[in-house]
Design brief:
The protein is mainly β. Helix content is 0%, strand content 57%. A hairpin with a 5-residue loop joins strand 5 and strand 6 (74-78).
Length: 379
């Protein structure tokens, strides 16, 4: 039976080269990429909150630099054209992080430099309930299926007078946001803590500028599908420069739990291994893809020639928004390239059938803002 070819050293999260702890210190590493070795991973730790600066230079061909969290999710990426140096800077909490250097063209050597300037104490502070400012949002806790509410809060027009909240998701789920009992008029925006610094700021990702709004008896609600992937913020603001808005806030979650022990990576080198699909068997995947987690990549092996059935279901909020592509990895290098055969081409349909041969396959799932269930069956 064909097997996935072994990755070269440092070509995956599991084999990432350790850079050690860089808070209060610097890193300086030289390495190279070529057509057989297109990706390098590095791992570093922070014992304290730090302002981290990174630079990828000395390039003779195009290469990108990505900063990943401890699960392999992308935090920020620098992808300048040609052989221009890539630079990243982020305020990061204590923890483990990864760097990915990915070649986009020919062979090149490179220099990876970085530093971490400590900005916190020996340990990160214990969160407090919050005062409602951008620096200290009101903590709504973790949404696990029960509604969460606030009564008669108020917010002003200017950013420094807005009322800020934060919450996390215990599982993937749909969340309905509602303002009621409104005096005046206002809106609530939804944001993702993309720089993971625990406070709302302009670097955070806007998911919905007006996820709920209200004025008197006119209250509009929206539902968003969110994964359990970090911290979310709500920012309530008044429509009027001259007066505050007063309101009740209600968050109603409906959970759609995933079934994978870890989140699929966004690229072939961090693909989630689904194992072997045998004739007469089914592999079921439940996960999320969308603004917060933009691509899921899977790999699997087919033990014998078979009729493949691809079946997809999505949350009712964003039906037919998830697209998938399945590629037969003909040269067994674990990457999609020009020699591979596309079995399922970028489709959002719910049922697809294809005759496939034994071998290794890669599945890309993207777009969305939906919780999805995919079933792969062989007959």
């Amino acid at each position: 039976m064909p097997q996935f070819c072994a990755v070269l050293q440092s070509n995956s999260l599991a084999t990432a080269q350790s850079l050690g702890a860089i808070d209060g210190s610097s890193l300086n590493r030289r390495d190279s990429l070529n057509r057989r070795d297109r990706v390098d991973f590095f791992r570093f730790t922070l014992n304290r909150s730090s302002n981290v600066k990174l630079k990828l230079g000395g390039l003779r061909a195009n290469a990108d630099l990505s900063l990943l969290d401890s699960t392999g999710k992308n935090i920020v990426r620098s992808a300048r054209p040609g052989n221009k140096a890539e630079k990243l800077q982020r305020q990061l909490a204590a923890g483990t992080y990864y760097l990915q250097v990915r070649g986009k063209g020919g062979s090149t050597s490179y220099k990876l430099k970085g530093s971490g300037v400590v900005t916190g104490g020996g340990t990160d502070p214990v969160p407090v309930p919050g005062t409602g400012t951008a620096e200290n949002p009101i903590d709504l806790g973790t949404l696990n299926g029960s509604p969460v509410s606030r009564s008669q809060d108020s917010a002003g027009f200017r950013a420094d007078k807005n009322r800020y909240y934060k919450f996390q998701m215990g599982q993937i789920g749909e969340v309905n946001f509602r303002m009621s009992q409104v005096t005046g008029g206002g809106k609530i925006g939804l944001y993702y803590d993309s720089n993971r610094n625990g406070r709302w700021d302009s670097d955070d990702q806007t998911l919905n500028f007006s996820v709920a709004e209200g004025s008197g008896s006119n209250n509009q609600t929206e539902t968003e599908v969110l994964p359990a992937a970090g911290t979310y913020f709500l920012a309530a603001r008044s429509d009027s420069l001259d007066s505050d808005v007063r309101y009740d806030l209600l968050l109603t979650p409906t959970l759609a739990p995933g079934n994978l022990p870890s989140d699929p990576g966004p690229e072939e080198t961090t693909a989630y291994n689904l194992g072997t699909l045998n004739k007469g068997s089914t592999i079921e995947i439940k996960d999320y893809v969308g603004d917060v987690d933009q691509k899921d990549v899977y790999k699997f092996n087919v033990s014998a020639a078979a009729r493949l059935t691809y079946n997809k279901l999505e949350t009712t909020t964003n039906k037919f928004s998830v697209y998938s592509e399945i590629v037969y990895d003909k040269n067994n290098n674990g990457l999609k390239d020009s020699t591979d055969q596309v079995i399922l081409f970028n489709t959002n349909t719910t049922d697809v059938f294809a005759d496939i041969q034994a071998g290794n396959y890669i599945m890309f799932t993207d777009r969305g803002d939906a919780a999805y269930t995919i079933k792969l069956s062989a007959s």
